[in-house]
């Protein structure tokens, strides 16, 4: 057991993992006839095309490891023999590596020899066989053994008749599924005629019996599409004029829907569509085709039989888009029509009569979005009130309507819906202008009427005088559809004359308006202008009645009264506000300067002040305009106004808190005026036991103070200037 090499195997998938040592013992006899026990290493497998290089395959270890170490080496094909440098080994560790990608189709296995030597080169173990097997990957495509296979079968052969066998090969390992082959026919038309065995490659006839005439299929509506080929054989030299064929369609195409040309490379006849076919009109054609050489035969050549072939063409039904029988589709609606009014009933047809399909409708390019369509019936109606006709250019509106089917693939047909917006007679005619001037010696006035509606609900207009006594002095003479001549009968006095007129349009039904024409009769100068302008009243421009004029004048007077009342109230409010800020009349202002003839006096100089407010604060609350306390401009609106007057504390020891509370209330009170009258204290009594506060440190401050400017303040400050001046 000790005379052996130990191999530690690792997985081949590129992720090293520990594996148990594999030890196989067998007996062999040496030259002396003694039985010796040796180690056998099982084959090591590695996949071809392995890309993670270098790749660890196995590690060799000897149990006769000397204190100085063991040197390992390998030899054989793939190491020091061709192909070289595929495998390598680390001398000290015994790790064997794969250095290049392997190709199983070139080398499917490698047999190497492994050696274990001491440092002096003396073998420690007998050489051991190391076999590396290359595992197959599916990296080769199957190949047919020849480019073309030819088979023959008689016309009308029974289904399942053997035609030919195709053969192919694969370079992958035949013992694996990588070399397993599967045969199939790609051409759809050929699959209808022949069947192939997937495993063996045998081709046999299909269930339908063979017909020598060629069978082709083409989709409808494909003008220019190639239908199929008509192959021919000619024994002349390929490519020469004697070899080229000429095809002609003799029968089966009365409309000229097909064309046939010669393929210059294969000499086959190419059948194509000269016109688009319609499956619903005709879905089958049977063409009789003849072929001959483009160059005439030599006279010595045997006369051949006429070459004819029959081509049967089937037309495939494809989905076609729906279509509208009318385009543009016309509809109409009256202006001002409410939502839900029917505009048009659009209907589309599906040309695919052999396919059960459904159609649904929708609108496109409807920018104003005042129309809607029922998706099932195609009924178009209004979803909003129709705007006036004048808002549409040309009185019409165009929108695209779509009809879509549920075929495969779904297709859509388009038509234009042209909607005419009809004019509605919703405006009566009126005179323009409604006030005129007439010279007392003039012939009359030419009156003009207009209408906001369009034809046929506008002119010609009808003019009549109103049934009132004042119209007996006037007559009307029609001049055209929009003008009439108003003339007085005899002399009319100068001044304002109100002439009622009845105007009607030509609508169905006609609309009538009664309008008052204000005519100012005056004496005119030589140029035809009134010498004394007589106003027809302020509302005459609109031809207003007397009652309407009175309503307007009353409204104006009422408005003026309201404006005057607001101005008076605002003036009174401002006066009261100014009075409250000043605390009374101008005579009560406290910015006057008292005339003192002598120094001293202190609190006894009280002639300019009313001390009753100090003695009885409850009887003299602070003044405020309109019964509300004044507020500073910087005061927040939500600030609570302090309650006055404040009560004296019952305990003299609380006087300090009382003073601080008053100071805080004065700082935060939004209603206090600029002067500090909000703080009212009790009367302190007559006289003062203390000296003048101005004498404190006055000796120090007066040395640096210059009081010469008091001389410039007038006679009232002359005494101060004498006391404090130099």
Automatic annotation (TrEMBL):
One Pfam family in the UniProt entry: CADH_Y-type_LIR
GO biological process, one term: homophilic cell adhesion via plasma membrane adhesion molecules
Annotated ranges, domain Cadherin: 38-144, 145-324, 325-431
Membrane-crossing residue ranges in chain numbering: 540-569
UniProt keyword Electron transport, yes or no: no
Source taxon at top rank: Eukaryota
SUPFAM superfamilies in the cross-refs: Cadherin-like
Subcellular location: Cell membrane; Cytoplasm
Membrane topology according to the record: Single-pass type I membrane protein
GO molecular function, one term: calcium ion binding
Keyword tRNA-binding on entry: no
Entry keyword set: Calcium, Cell adhesion, Cell membrane, Cytoplasm, Glycoprotein, Membrane, Metal-binding, Repeat, Signal, Transmembrane, Transmembrane helix
Gene Ontology CC entries for this record: cytoplasm; plasma membrane
Function: Cadherins are calcium-dependent cell adhesion proteins. They preferentially interact with themselves in a homophilic manner in connecting cells; cadherins may thus contribute to the sorting of heterogeneous cell types. M-cadherin is part of the myogenic program and may provide a trigger for terminal muscle differentiation.
Name by which UniProt lists this protein: Cadherin-15
Source organism: Anolis carolinensis (Green anole)
Gene: CDH15
